[in-house]
Amino acid sequence: MAPPRETTARAEALGAPPFERFYATHKEEVYRYLVRMLGRQLAEDAFQETFLRALRAYGDLRHARHLRAWAFTIATRVALDERRRARPESLEAPEIPVADSRPAYAELAHLADELPRTERAAVVLRYGYDLDYADIAEALGSSEDAARQAASSGVRRLRAKGAA
Amino acid sequence: MTVPASLDERFRDRAAADGLLDVAYDLTDSPVGPLLLAATERGVCRISFEPEPERELDALARWFGARVLRSPKPVDPLRRELDAYFEGTRREFDLAVDLTPLPAFQRSVLEELARVRYGETATYGGLATRVGNPRAARAVGGALNRNPIPIVLPCHRVVGASGSLVGYAGGLERKRALLELERGELRLA
After folding, report:
1. Which of A33, A60, A81, B129 could form a disulfide with B134 if both were Cys (CB 3.0 to 4.6 A apart)?
2. Is B155 a catalytic residue?
């Protein structure tokens, strides 16, 4: 996976931090995200795969910017692959920690597992983790408009379910 | 909800087993205080007294590459040999070292240093002569002061012309303790 493209002279001078620091900074958040996307059992393999993929690409990083979004990008791709492979009945009910959720999202999050996978990822990244649409687009491998569209149609679908 | 310790451990082991790390390191206790131990795939690359992990990590990343991760297994052989050394049952280390980031002069000084045997001492001037530059005693002192792998590369065995301890990046107390251990005058473990 290509590292984030954006660079500045200063960021290049700083270089990527030692991997240990990147891992320590993002592992908890990425783990919670994967549990939310996949359930606890599948999240363990996905967590390991996420950080192994990050390590494989890490040597080519030339700067320390956008590392959080980059971690979520890799985790999202791993999670989408995993959900594609897993039969729906093997997915556990998602666990939703309410403390770090926005109220509107928290009310609807228990329904999010039924969303199509890209909509689910877009909704969770936007409202659960506050990533902007440029970063969500990168994670989904889509355009920014498509990412915005996926999140808003996911929210519409959730509202409809919530109201039903 | 936090990352289970077993999962964290599995990831760290796997990262090393798959050859994805530039440097694996761990922290360990020893009779001369806490140590940071680090290794690349080529060999042991760092032993640090009084380690400040944050500063050490930055230095390791600068020298060897950013893929620096705490991962105990690759440094276990070093840990075991150090334990035996402190117990007095090991006199030589059977481990490769990685000195690739060092300037040629410092490497040649450290390679010469490695020939100073357990329980013996050399002088700065003597080492300078052995690297082919008898007037470079001061430069030899500088190279030893920045020795990245103390104990294994025994800069504690280098003393002043009069036999005085002179200096040691890890502190004179440690230098004295290591020399006394090697003379059989002190039990550390």
Report:
1. B129
2. yes
